[in-house]
Amino acid sequence: MADCPNCNYHLKITDWKPNCPKCGVNVLYAEFEPRFYLDAKKAELSIASVRVWAKQLVAGLWGNIWAKLRICLCFLPAAALLLPALTAEIELPYGGTSFSAGLLGIVNIITGGQLNFLLAFNEFPIPGNAVTFLYALLGLTVVAVLLAVLTLFGSLFSFTKSKRASWTVFVFCCLGFLASAAAFGLSFFTNKELLAAPGLISVQLQYGPILWAAMFGGLGFIHFMAAHQELEPVYKEGDYERSRIWKEVKTGKTDIYSLPYPVVETAETREREEKINEELIALGISPALAAEAKAEEALAAAGIDPDHAEIAKEDTDNG
Amino acid sequence: MAEQEPGVIKKLFTAEDNSAAKIDKEKLDRHAALATRVFHTPVLTLKEMMFPAVSDFANRFISAVNSYQKTYLVMVFRLDMVYVAGISALISIWDVLNDPLMGIVYDRTRTRYGKARPYLLATPIPYYVSLALTYLGAIFFNNANTSDPRKVLYLFIVMFLQETFATIYNLPKGNLPILMTPHPNDRIVMGLIKNYADFIGGQIMYATFIPFMDLNNHGIINIPMSYFFAFMAVFAATIAIVGNIGLALGTRERIMLQPKPVHFTKSMFYILKNKYALRNFIASFAVSWFEKGGYDWDVVRQMDLFGGWIGTTITEGIPTMTGEFASAALVPLTMKIFGGNKRNGQIFFFSLDFVRALAQYLLGAAVINKRLLFCIVWGVLKLVNSMDNAPSRVIGDELNREIADYTEYVTGERPDGTAGILTGFITRLTAPLKAIFTVAVFKWTGYNASLGMGSYRQGNFTVYKRLYFLETFSSCLPGLVSILPWFFYDLVGEKREAMYVALNERRALLTKEPPEELSMIEATLDAEL
User: Which of A140, B13, B113, B119 could serve as A183's disulfide partner, Cβ 3.0–4.6 Å?
Assistant: First the structure.
């Protein structure tokens, strides 16, 4: 609910007419100038705030060579996991299946119904530790896939808190590297053990973990460098100050009425003032009148109706 | 010697006495400082600019659902086409009657909340609820009787309510962004954001709607169409209600209107005082009989020449989306080149479109029987076409706003509701001629609608070449007439600046020296004397 700017009568929702029911003044007209300056200040501060956020976003995504590289190459570990560590084909009297220890293999195992078959593998009469090594290899592959996905999304969203995100993704990459190295070693043992299984399984080693490790290592290095580099967004003149003031206005620390207009003076605002002065001179407005107008503007910017300030001053002068 | 009263003809075409064009310059210049500052100062926050965009986004959902209304009514609601056509005709008659009424009421509206906002608060719920009810009908009346009198009555009632509230809603909704700010740059940025929100809303709907219908038609998914349409309509209506009420509550009108609106019998002739609007109207009236055959030739092209929705998505959807988003990056460059003289921009973009459309027709017609080549030609030139969408829209919208502001400059009034009464009535006079032309064009194409739509279903490439001509290049011919007034548009540079200064001075004068308060003071002085 609003108050009449002239007599402070509390206007109800049902007072829909433009004129105040008590004093008859047109409410829209009376509050036009103070509201104009209030809106102008809010627009100046809020749009600067959005520009600052946009600059930080762009800097986080694209601010230096390492930021560019981490965005462009974030998909590499996931792409590398397309090459499996190992492919195997199982032939049984009542049926068989094939699977691979890689990204596509894991997806197929989960969605293609092979999971139960593989879990039942434990009961087959396979000598040695083949099954244990196979389960361990598949487990490491799942870990590598999860870390690749986390790395991908972490890299894409690293513009939000750039350094912290980079350190987090660096940790993921280190874990991914370790998982890949372990998978590489384990793939040899699994291959050896499975080959020993009599005529049941045919296995082929694919050396995928070498590529996985290389990609995790490379991306980890990029994130390590990005975490050490300062990102320096280049803000438009005055925007950072405006953004800070806007935060204070929103939290109530600063009263927007106490701020001048323009809130922060810059080359752009000075250019605008010059253009306004030139137009006023072209209209034949004298410098004295322009100065008087400027004083009225300052009052209006402070939320005081200049016409009322004039009347109050006259009353004071007349005692 | 007393001044002679101007004649009736001169009164019709010259500026009003209380307008910015006629008020004593000394009186206006008292508020020059405030007026100049208002013209050069942005006042919209990004949050306030987003409200019209969210509303447009939501409305696009609704219009995407509504584009299938006839299909729904005949195939899902299962009502005979005769009843559908009859009800549509009756509703159209009601539309012709209520549009001017709403225009008159709207122009007389003056509240402390503004001119447009009260309507936007009151109408979204009844409008979108009645719209959703249209698509819930198939659930309420689940029978195969295409002549069920209950269905006929139900449809008539919901469409009547829908049309009534649509009229009350649409005019203020279209007008509100103009009333939100006098700063040209604010209007341009807000217009751009709105356009993109509208575009994205449409693309999301089409990306879900068409594939879903296709999958349902092929039996891959099995959801009854009545439930699908009901869900889409209720979902779209909910978003639209929230978006539009948010628009009413989250925005403010800053254009100060004169307190006493003029009578509609006066304002409906105000177009005669605005030479730019008058010229544009005469040009568009001169070609208002033109019609491209009254059929959805783009759907024929998509189904027959592209081979279905997959081909359409690749050949048309992707280039359009790419071009649209890329065109936003061209807006700053466009404003740099044409900002001081938007008329030149308007002529430039028309010329570009003319050449592109001609190339599209000639190249496309030459390879119309070779699907792959035809798709490539279409896709490339569609991309080129989309690249200038944002800049040409920005220029075109701002020019239209300038012309509307010129009306306020010469009349003191913003007759957004009644300005179209006279021109709308005159344009309707060409409706019979338009109908005859439509039938003649359709016959000329040789298109056989009974063959249905499918890959090269017509079996005759001459037919497809004619349809292609109608779709691509034919609109450029009346466009050559419509562009003529812009060569005489001189509201550019200093003249435009001077108009805006005077206009803002008058608005400032209204706020500082309101006529009703002045007349109250004069009445008090008279009484004392």
Answer: A140
